[in-house]
Design a protein that fits this description.
The structure is a homodimer. Chain A has about 250 residues and is an all-alpha fold. Chain A binds a DNA duplex (30 and 30 nucleotides) through helix 2.
DNA sequence: TCTTGACCTTCACGCAACGTCAACGTTTAT
DNA sequence: ATAAACGTTGACGTTGCGTGAAGGTCAAGA
């Protein structure tokens, strides 16, 4: 079956302008151009347009879609399966939002109270996404896919109380660590308490805890500037101090 | 609780630029501006930002959001409930897409075959949406909310076979109508067959059929240029002819 | 054969919703 | 008191098209 712009456009539910634009940016070239300059699309283009729309549905930029579908290693089945995972994730995130709306209704009706943080639950996912876009690749290179995925997954599934607990823990770690740093002794009581709090905090993000992994993470804290910057913010050297404390704690 | 731009931004997971932009376009003004020109947001603004993000999630334009949330008759609870309906609808549409992906996988694995039309299922929803944006208001004014909602809902929930049936029916109506028009007799056998087919077609979109509603729709066909344009495309006068045939059919 | 109308083409400007500098004032913490 | 972090207002850039304008193409009917 062959299609002109209009035919394909109405089949797929996009505008003719969109098809011309996709041609222009090299995302979807027609199978051939007839003697009068008309774009003629074939079966392969229909399939490809479908792929493109799949990815567009996930709010992926057209240039990235281009990279994905034009990649020589492009495995259609695999791409589709990944795609489905993301759709399912999107649906789960919608569930969070729906729960949020339900709560908001209860809240405006005065039945319950909502913290400001709760009010933006479900929107946070966007931040996770953007984080992925920015740091995703680095982090994946550094720590491996599984770690990143699990961390994200846990973050997204976290219940409201958990979220509050974890932010509180984060504060506690920082406070205890600051006090411990003042003592200068990573083997001291305070430093070990900080390491323990850090373990608890970590358990919110990790499926299973092991001393080796904890120690490994501590090493990475010092190797990765993003983490050192975070911990050294108030007191330079804190990241190293935390590493030492953890290394002792996990021995 | 009072928030500066950054505080509110990180709370809600948006950028500071976004907040400044929302201020600029009058969508979300800070509670006050301190002596140094800093924007200070209060509790009301937090709640309002939440509302805004809800609507933004539905891809509603900021100007429309502005109209919605600044409307003097703005009923928060009602808005939230409507909002939830749309989120649920969105999730259902995601289900359609997921089903589509599943089929696509089966198709690339050679287990089943997909028609070109099938390939774009789930994307069709966008067309419904855009139709809503363009004609929604008119149509709602003209036919009432319920009719439009039901029609959209049925269209979105339609199964694959139904979709094929309905497009076939549409063709059949057009063909029979063309032949009937040639006879010139709206009471004749062919014209009455066309009216009957039209009824069947209609039954795909209506929850319940009544002769009165069918007759009413026939009148509207002639009154609304969009419909007359559709039916008169091949043969001017066809819309009127169909109306007459339906009026006889429903008598 | 000529015209009409629905197609198709290529520019080219317009738009929303911000991102992203630049250039500069303010607050806070050490 | 000096830096670092945070705030401000322009102002131009970006993405993914929408929307003409100005004009070729093609089948069908007068």
């Amino acid at each position: 079956m062959e299609y002109t712009v209009q035919k394909l456009a109405s089949l797929a539910g996009v505008s003719t302008r969109t098809l011309r634009y996709y041609d222009e940016i090299g995302l979807l070239k027609p199978a051939r151009v007839n003697s009068s300059g008309y774009r003629i699309y074939g079966q392969a283009e229909v399939n490809r347009l479908q792929q493109i729309l799949f990815y567009r549905e996930l709010d992926i930029g057209l240039d990235k879609i281009k990279n994905i579908v034009t990649a020589p290693t492009f495995d259609e089945t695999k791409a589709l399966k990944e795609h489905m995972q993301e759709l399912i994730a999107k649906r789960e995130q919608l569930d969070v939002l729906i729960a949020n709306v339900e709560k908001s209704i209860a809240s405006t009706e005065g039945r319950i109270e909502m913290s400001d943080q709760e009010k933006f639950k479900g929107f946070k996912k966007k931040m996770v996404e953007e984080n992925e876009k920015k740091y995703g690749k680095e982090a994946r290179d550094l720590y491996g896919d599984d770690a990143v995925d699990q961390s994200n997954a846990k973050l997204m599934n976290m219940s409201q109380e958990d979220y509050e607990k974890v932010t509180n823990l984060e504060e506690e770690v920082k406070e205890t660590l600051a006090k411990a740093f003042a003592t200068g002794d990573p083997a001291g009581e305070l430093a070990q308490k900080a390491a323990d709090l850090h373990k608890q905090w970590l358990c919110f993000y990790w499926k299973e805890y092991s001393k080796e992994a904890h120690a490994g993470l501590a090493q990475m804290y010092v190797a990765d500037e993003r983490f050192t910057a975070y911990y050294d913010k108030e007191q330079p050297g804190t990241a190293e101090f935390l590493r030492d404390a953890i290394l002792i704690y996990t021995k």
